[in-house]
């Protein structure tokens, strides 16, 4: 005769007192959620009206600085061309990007987007964001930038901008994004690419391939960046089924 089980209820319960088993349940559940999110983010509209450009840059450079005014002019020029502008939604050059977009089309809220991060400092939403998204972690926020953007422009920035640049660069390197320009404005980023090329392509101890350094496109100024976006946008428009 079979012995009756001592537990009650469903047969596959995992008691919290069994930490190893409980941890396995949590890890499997989180992995399943990640897989579900990854599947859902593969979906896209068959066509869109506007090409979306994300501008990455410093939260520290304020209105009145040369960089701020140049980024504002950059975003205005792209919006006038027919692009939507995405920024990190915060102050500094992120605000400059949203301000430039709103100056061209103040009634179209979707054309000035902010993807913000919840931080205890410096990341209040700037007043020029028309449509906002919020994230509790950098991981989900970075993913949002990647799936929302048709092009990236990196203007002067710090460690956060470097993180955003690096992720876009790697996704392009490994073929998880295609035909998505990564444009680096100014000498500081040109120096970064030169440093990377020097140290990663040393003969006999190569850490990358020569073609990896053709992925980021240097632009000496905002006019060059606008020209590059115009060319990419024209190619993109040819693929859209816009009625």
From TrEMBL:
GO terms for molecular function: hydrolase activity, acting on glycosyl bonds. Its EC number is 3.2.2.4. Pfam families: Lysine_decarbox. The keyword Hydrolase applies. It comes from the Bacteria. InterPro entries: LOG_fam, LOG_family_nucleotidases. It catalyses: AMP + H2O = D-ribose 5-phosphate + adenine. Keywords: Glycosidase, Hydrolase. This is AMP nucleosidase. It comes from Haloferula chungangensis.
């Amino acid at each position: 005769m079979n012995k009756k089980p001592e537990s009650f209820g469903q047969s596959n319960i995992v008691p919290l007192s069994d930490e190893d088993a409980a941890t396995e349940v949590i890890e499997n559940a989180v992995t399943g959620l990640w897989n579900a999110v990854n599947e859902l983010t593969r979906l896209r509209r068959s066509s869109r009206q506007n090409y979306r450009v994300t501008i990455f840059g410093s939260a520290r450079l304020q209105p009145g600085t040369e960089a701020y005014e140049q980024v504002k002019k950059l975003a205005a020029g792209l919006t006038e061309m027919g692009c939507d502008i995405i920024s990190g939604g915060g102050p500094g050059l992120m605000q400059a990007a949203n301000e430039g977009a709103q100056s061209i089309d103040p009634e179209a809220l979707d054309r000035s987007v902010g993807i913000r991060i919840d931080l205890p400092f410096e990341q209040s939403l700037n007043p020029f964001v028309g449509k906002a998204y919020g994230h509790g972690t950098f991981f989900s926020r970075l993913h949002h930038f990647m799936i929302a953007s048709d092009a990236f422009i990196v203007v002067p920035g710090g460690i956060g901008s470097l993180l955003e640049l690096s992720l876009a660069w790697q996704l392009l390197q490994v073929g998880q994004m295609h035909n998505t320009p990564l444009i680096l404005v100014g000498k500081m980023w040109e120096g970064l690419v030169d440093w990377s090329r020097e140290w990663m392509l040393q003969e006999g101890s190569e850490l990358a391939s020569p073609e990896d350094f053709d992925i980021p496109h240097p632009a000496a100024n905002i006019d060059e960046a606008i020209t590059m976006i115009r060319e990419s946008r024209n190619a993109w428009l040819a693929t859209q089924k816009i009625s």
